[in-house]
Specification:
62% helix; two-stranded antiparallel sheet; 415 residues; 2% strand; single chain; mainly alpha; 15 helices; 4 strands
Length: 415
C-alpha cells in the first residue's frame, strides 16, 4: 500500500517548504458521488437492506484509507528495512480499538438486521503458513495489499489495475486448489483466545491488549537502537476542512477503521473482508467461458453465490464502496491522476498480484480478513498471519530492486 509518506534522498541546504494542497477536481467529485448514489438506489431497490448500508460503510472505509494513506504494506516494509515502527504502532491502536468493540459484539452475537455476529476464526496449519508468507512477498511486489490495491485504484494509480487483475486470477487459482491445501495438508482446529482457552472475551481482551502493548514497546526499542528516519505529515488543511482536504493523522484513521469494521460486523454478521470477492469474480468469469467451477471444493458449500448477482455479495459491495470512497477523496484533494506504467513495475504487479490472490485463499484471508479481522476476532491465526507476512516482507526487500522498486534506507528521510 502507498505509504503515509514517501521516502526521498536527504537534501543539502535549506529544507523546501511543504507543498500546498491541490485544487479539488470538482467534476470528478460530482461524478463519483453520482455513481455512488445510483449504486445505492439500485442496491436499495434490488437487493437486501444490508447492501446499501454496506455500500456506505465501504465508501467511508475507502475515504479513510486514502486520506490517511493508511498502510499495511508500507508499515511492514518500513519496520523490516529501517526499523521505523510508527505505522505499525498505528496498527496496534487500530487493533486495540477493534478488540474492545468486537468483544461485546461477539459475546452477545448482536447485529442490526437479525442473525448472529461471528468473527473470523480459522485453522492454523501449513495452508496458513504458506499463504501468509506468499502474501507478504506479493504485497511488497504488487505495490499494495488487498485494501491498498482497492484504494490505490480509486486514486488512479495505473499499475494497480494490473495488480488487481492478477490478484483476481491468483485468488481464482487458489479457490481451485483450496480443497487440497485445507484437506490434505496438516492443520490444527481453529483456536480462539476467547472460546478455545477458557479465558472468555474479557480475558481474551486483556491478553490482546497486552500483546499490542508489547509490540509497541518492541518497535520503540528498535527505533531507539536504529534511529530510523521519521514520518513527516503530508500537506493538509486546518480545522474541520481537514476532513475533506489533505492528510489525516494515522491514529485518527486507525480508530475510524476499527469503528467501521465493528459496524460491518454488526451489519452483515461478519467482519470486513476483501479477497473472497476476488475469488467470486474470477470464478464467475471462469464459469462464463465454460469451466465447471461449481465442482471445486471451495464452492461446494456456497454454490448459490455462483448463480446470484455479484451485487448480492456483501464483500463485493464493500469493495466497490472502498474504490468509490477513495476516488471521491482523491478527487476532492485534487490528486486523482493516472501515472506511468513501466515494464518492470508491471511485471512486479503481475507476480505480486498472483502471490497475493493465491496466498489469501490459502491463508483464509488477506491483511484485512486474516490480520485485521482475525486478530479483532481473537483468532490465533491472525497473529500467525502477521508474523509470516513480516517474514515474506523481509524476503521481498531483496526482490524489490530487481523490479526497480525502492527499499527505504537508513539515510533516507520520509516526507
Amino acid at each position: 500500500m502507498q505509504a503515509q509518506v514517501q521516502p526521498v534522498s536527504e537534501q543539502k541546504g535549506p529544507v523546501q517548504s511543504t507543498p500546498s494542497l491541490n485544487q479539488a477536481q470538482t467534476p470528478l467529485v460530482i461524478g463519483g458521488l453520482t455513481v455512488a448514489a445510483i449504486l445505492f438506489i439500485y442496491l436499495a431497490a434490488a437487493q437486501s437492506v444490508v447492501q446499501p448500508v454496506l455500500l456506505v460503510i465501504g465508501l467511508l472505509l475507502g475515504y479513510t484509507l486514502f486520506h490517511a494513506r493508511f498502510g499495511f504494506t508500507s508499515a511492514f516494509r518500513r519496520l523490516m528495512s529501517v526499523g521505523n515502527g510508527q505505522a505499525l504502532r498505528a496498527h496496534m491502536v487500530m487493533l486495540a480499538v477493534a478488540v474492545t468493540l468486537f468483544a461485546p459484539i461477539l459475546a452477545t452475537g448482536f447485529t442490526f438486521f437479525g442473525g448472529t455476529a461471528q468473527g473470523y476464526v480459522s485453522p492454523v496449519g501449513v495452508s496458513l503458513i504458506v499463504g501468509a508468507f506468499m502474501f507478504g512477498i506479493g504485497m511488497q511486489l504488487g505495490g499494495g495489499c488487498a485494501s491498498g490495491t482497492l484504494y490505490a485504484i480509486g486514486g488512479g494509480r495505473s499499475v494497480m489495475f494490473i495488480t488487481l487483475l492478477f490478484f483476481i486470477i491468483g485468488a481464482t487459482i487458489g479457490a481451485y486448489h483450496f480443497e487440497f491445501w485445507t484437506s490434505e495438508m496438516p492443520a490444527f482446529e481453529p483456536i480462539s483466545l476467547a472460546t478455545s482457552t477458557g479465558l472468555g472475551y474479557f480475558g481474551a481482551w486483556l491478553v490482546s491488549i497486552l500483546i499490542f502493548g508489547i509490540v509497541i514497546l518492541v518497535t520503540l526499542r528498535i527505533e531507539k537502537k536504529k534511529n530510523p528516519p521519521k514520518m513527516a505529515a503530508l500537506p493538509s488543511a486546518s480545522g474541520w476542512k481537514r476532513i475533506f482536504r489533505g492528510s489525516w493523522p494515522l491514529i485518527a484513521a486507525a480508530i475510524a477503521l476499527a469503528v467501521l469494521n465493528a459496524l460491518t460486523l454488526m451489519t452483515r454478521e461478519s467482519p470486513w473482508g476483501i479477497t473472497s470477492a476476488f475469488a467470486l469474480w474470477g470464478s464467475k468469469a471462469a464459469q462464463a467461458v465454460g469451466i465447471d467451477v461449481s465442482s471445486w471444493g471451495y464452492w461446494q458449500a456456497n454454490a448459490d453465490q455462483l448463480q446470484a448477482s455479484i451485487f448480492a455479495d456483501t464483500t463485493t459491495v464493500l469493495n466497490f464502496g472502498v474504490i468509490l470512497g477513495a476516488f471521491i477523496a482523491s478527487a476532492a484533494g485534487g490528486l486523482f491522476r493516472f501515472n506511468k506504467v513501466t515494464p518492470k513495475n508491471a511485471a512486479a504487479s503481475v507476480i505480486g498480484g498472483l502471490l497475493m490472490g493465491y496466498g489469501a485463499r490459502l491463508a483464509f484471508g488477506c491483511n484485512i480478513g486474516a490480520y485485521f479481522g482475525g486478530i479483532a476476532s481473537f483468532s490465533l491465526h491472525g497473529y500467525i498471519w502477521g508474523v509470516l507476512a513480516l517474514a515474506g516482507t523481509f524476503l521481498a526487500l531483496f526482490l524489490r530492486p530487481l523490479f526497480g522498486l525502492s527499499v527505504p534506507k537508513s539515510k533516507d528521510s520520509f516526507c
